[in-house]
Design goal:
Elements lengths: L1 H47 L7 H15 L3 E4 L5 E3 L6 H6 L5 E5 L2 E8 L7 E8 H4 L3 H45 L13 H47 L4 H29 L5 E2 H18 L4 E5 L5 E2 L3 H18 L6 E7 L17 E7 L22 H12 L3 E6 L5 E7 L3
Parallel strand pairs: 7-9
Antiparallel strand pairs: 1-2, 1-5, 3-4, 4-5, 6-8, 9-10, 10-12, 11-12
Helix pairs in contact: 1-2, 1-5, 5-6, 6-7, 8-9, 9-10
Length: about 425
């Protein structure tokens, strides 16, 4: 926008200056030529006064002095054909002036200013002052150059003023955009500082009001979720008690299993709503990953699995809560135990994205983030897109990868799948930094 305003002001200023300076330049040239012709005419008329009043030597001296003082050669053509002063040829214009008519005529290299003097001894005398072409435009080019420099300076000043004005508009607008991006990523504490023109300040106040309204709505949603949680768990507890009181053990076990499944489904829905209702959270990923891998290492030892843990030096803060990150690690490592045979080794790696040239996720390592990689030596992924809910090719629901994908995207990152150098599957979870 700053460039557009500067270009607009430059174009407008240039049009105004052209409309003013071009006529002014033409006027300067016209005035300069008029002054030059007037100077030559005065020199010729000063000599014309002396014709018939002084002798020939004095007239010659007067013509030479007039030419020297004006800078224009002065020649006197007498009626008897004699020429006094600066040497010059008798042109047709001189013959016309000898008939008693003063005039200005073009000549090679300049102009002739001819003044006819009637009543001179022997007939009409003609006084000629020669005006060279360079004398006609003397000083004009310097004036034009000064006008050009003035125009460039004025355009530059206009662009500078436009840039200052654009900065006063663009700066607050950019700040509003940054606040909106923070709000979009879940940072509901972001607020705009009203500044700039009145319209931009009004937009900032409206954005702050919108952020406060969103916070209020999320608070209401959290209260509603708490109420729903309480209302749903009470009848579920009653159903469980009713199932336990049944006399048929098989029927009781069947109903209890259905109640357990319903309770898990309700828990998943409530946790999901709570996760979306919470304000943006963050945590240090290093201790969370270390703790969860240590938890799974006990089961790995029982199944003769080799576990490799590669953690970068912390802290590595990510834009996800410790509970969400722990759920991701559990889901990814749990998939290794569920879909690889006993004895298949796996590796968990946590590193700051961009520390080395490539992160192994198809990117060049530019940008920020924390990369969590889980690799195994199992059979790899089956057909389909395992990261989509319900499309796992290994006989599962695909919920684990879907949970990890959503947490990654909510933090500003992404989840990608690939082949591991251990021979099996590899899941790369890029988490946004807090």
């Amino acid at each position: 926008m700053r460039r557009w305003l500067a270009a607009l002001v430059a174009a407008t200023t240039s049009l105004v200056l052209v409309s003013l300076l071009v006529p002014l330049a033409l006027l300067v040239r016209s005035v300069a030529r008029s002054e030059a012709i007037g100077s030559a005419t005065r020199a010729a008329e000063s000599v014309a006064v002396a014709v018939g009043a002084v002798d020939e030597d004095t007239l010659r001296l007067t013509a030479e002095q007039a030419g020297a003082s004006s800078g224009h050669p002065v020649t006197v053509f007498l009626a008897d054909g004699r020429v006094l002063g600066a040497p010059a040829a008798r042109t047709p214009a001189v013959e016309l002036a000898a008939r008693g008519r003063s005039l200005t005529a073009s000549a090679p290299g300049g102009r002739e200013i001819l003044v006819a003097v009637q009543g001179a001894p022997g007939g009409t005398a003609v006084i000629r002052a020669f005006l060279a072409d360079e004398d006609l435009d003397e000083g004009v080019h310097r004036t034009w150059l000064a006008l050009l420099v003035l125009g460039i300076v004025l355009v530059g000043v206009g662009m500078l003023v436009a840039d200052r004005l654009a900065r006063a508009i663009v700066g607050p607008t950019t700040a509003l955009a940054e606040v909106s991006h923070h709000l979009a990523t879940g940072d509901l504490t972001a607020r705009a500082r009203p500044q700039g023109p009145p319209e931009v300040r009004t937009a900032g106040l409206a954005l702050n009001h919108l952020a406060e309204r969103i916070s209020d709505l999320l608070a209401e949603e959290r209260e509603m979720v708490a109420d729903v949680s309480h209302r749903l768990r009470t009848p579920l507890t009653g159903l469980r008690l009713e199932a336990e009181s049944l006399s048929d053990p098989g029927e009781a076990a069947r109903i209890e299993a259905r109640v357990d499944a319903l309770e898990r489904a309700v828990t998943v829905v409530i946790n999901d709503v709570r996760r979306r209702s919470r304000e943006r959270a963050s945590c240090d990923a290093v201790p969370v990953v270390r703790y969860r891998v240590a938890f799974w290492s006990v089961l790995a030892e029982d199944q003769s699995r080799t576990v490799t843990l590669d953690l970068a030096a912390g802290p590595l803060r990510v834009a996800a809560s410790a509970d969400d990150l722990a759920a991701c690690v559990d889901a990814l490592v749990g998939n290794v135990f569920a879909h690889t045979p006993d004895g298949a080794s796996f590796r968990v790696r946590l590193a700051a994205r961009g520390m080395t040239g490539s992160d192994g996720d198809g990117t060049d390592g530019r940008g920020g983030g924390v990369l969590l990689t889980v690799s195994d030596a199992g059979p790899g992924f089956g057909p389909g897109d395992p990261s989509r809910r319900g499309e796992s090719g290994a006989g599962s629901t695909g919920l684990g990868l879907d949970i990890a994908r959503r947490v990654a995207e909510q933090s500003g990152g992404r989840l990608t799948l690939g082949d591991s150098d251990l021979g099996g599957a590899e899941v790369r979870l890029l988490l946004g930094i807090a």
